[in-house]
Write a structure and sequence with these properties.
It is globular and about 55 Å long. By secondary structure, it is of the alpha/beta class. The two termini are 22 Å apart. Strand 12, helix 7 and strand 13 (225-233) form a beta-alpha-beta unit. Helix content is 31%, strand content 26%. It has twelve helices and 16 strands.
Amino acid sequence: MKAFVVEKYGKDGARAAEVPEPTVGDRDVLVRVSASSINPLDKMVRNGEFKQLLKYKPPFTLGHDVAGVVTRVGPAVHGFEVGDEVYARPRDLRIGGFAEFIAIDMDDVAPKPASLTLQEAAAVPLVALAAWQVLVDRADVKPGQKVLVHAGAGGLGSTVIQLAKHLGATVATTANTRSEKLVRSLGADVVVDYTKEDFSKVLSGYDLVLDSLGGANLEKSLTVLKPGGLAISVVGPPDAGFAKQLGAPSFIAAVMSFLSRNVRKQAKTLGVRYQFFFMEANGSQLRELGALYDSGKLRPVIDSTFPFDRTLEAMAHVEQGRTKAGKVVVSMVPGND
């Protein structure tokens, strides 16, 4: 089958290749991929940013989002049948959405939301799971709390805004002038145009900040939190909790703790908290999220769609910052350019 694989770590390390169809384990569903989507994590894995923790062995197939049709099920699989339309974020070390077929553990798979096309569903799993795990699992967001979401027009930000509003939060976001109408339509109560204003000068008293930019943006985010508030970053620096999540040795946890020492110290001085976040595959959460899409509480935001044979161009489109809003989808269906 055709796939896009990482042959070697680095910016130019991915290429199209013919690879064997995946082996189907007892608990696996084999999915004929209809569509996938591009995530910043694809670039990070391709570049080897997590190679000490996620030990992929090149060549391996990239792609963290999948929507498609089940073509075979392992003997221990229950709840899925051949012909089912499904979506998934396959677990780490078993990614591979940029391919014609992928075998996925049944615990990572969920029925595709009925209201979404397969191409729309492919834009959902990673960002929706990340939004759920940040807002519900980590921060336990309650009605009336204040949440700041950076880069609200992005794939993750646009999903977090919607879910935070569903949970009853007051939501602020940063966006540029052309994106203000979009983020307000998603539910943002306060929009700070970062081309005109410094969010840290106009916002205060927030319970949660979700940072996807890092660096100075993260440091300033700490200052808008109320005492005891929580800043979560999806770009780092990583902390000891991340090493624990991946089951890494204690010396790796010590390294992670060292890398995040400055931001944790700043947070402590301000009386707030900092955590690094790395999402996990979870099919049962995707079922709950699917119900929210079908009820109209959530909707995917899609920037553009590329044909499968232009997957590397789609990745470059995202890396070069050419997306206007939402996710870039890669579709197996001709005519979706």
